[in-house]
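Let's sit down with a protein and look at its sequence and fold side by side. Please make up or recall a protein chain and show it to me in full. Label the sequence line and the structure token line clearly, so we can match residues to local backbone shapes. Go ahead whenever you are ready, and we will take it from there.
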Amino acid sequence: MNINRFFATLGLLLGATFCSNAQNYTLQIGNITWVGGPGGYNPFSATAYPNTVNFTITKNVYGSSVTYSVMAGTSATSGNYTRQMASGANRLNYQIYTTSAMTYVLQAPNVATANNAISGTSSATKGTVIPLSFLFYVTPSQVVAAGTYTDTVVVGIYNAFNSTSPMTSKSITITTVVAASAALSIVPTGSAFSTSTSQTLAFGTLATGQVLGCDLLVKRNTSATVTFDSANHGVMKAIPTPDTDQIPYTFVANGTTFNLASAANLLLPAGVSTTGTRLPINVTIGNISAAGAGNYQDQVTITVTAP
């Protein structure tokens, strides 16, 4: 009888110890949405926006020196720690780091070292809320199609970085909205995309039929509209003081002649252009016989917009 009572008590103690370890902490974390420039992620901006993600864990037991290691699993999209968000077949790279220094990637056991976890020890009372954070980083200048990109990652609390299973875990959704975006560069004929956004076509001494040109390059991640707007409505006028004399010219962009008497539009179809769609521009001087001597000029403003 005494032996039976002894073994019954021992089984109860073992069961109580297991439940306590499994519930040392609870996790409070929500889904994550990237926050950066206005309108969403701009693939043509080199500005970085590291996002600090704040969350909490709550101590669920009495006792001092209770350890914890908060860790995160692989990307559901990529299946590994080269994390990616997906929008259909398109991919956007991102990463989760343990701190703002972005030195160590937040990982999970069997791969993680101590540096890949957010670890600590709490001697506080039961019910104490512990604020923690990690860094969510989307690499700038990724030219990807416009859309909403998502991924899921499991975040868990472990007893230590090399524990076999979490005390508790939660699957969170990570979202980034990539804005419809476009960027332009106006360069000498044949040149590559650059920061240049203006060119001067200097004809020198004018003659009927003279031709000069340059290239317009348009990067985009969707469809885009290119607008050409002439200050003088498609003619050159005398400077610095315009008079009634004017010189006509023909404006051709990407093989199409545009009447610049009013603003003219060129539509680019949906697509992703990482180096810039090249649109050659040519200006041909018209009949100058009716114009008096002097310096003549027009300014054409080119604007690229994405819907």
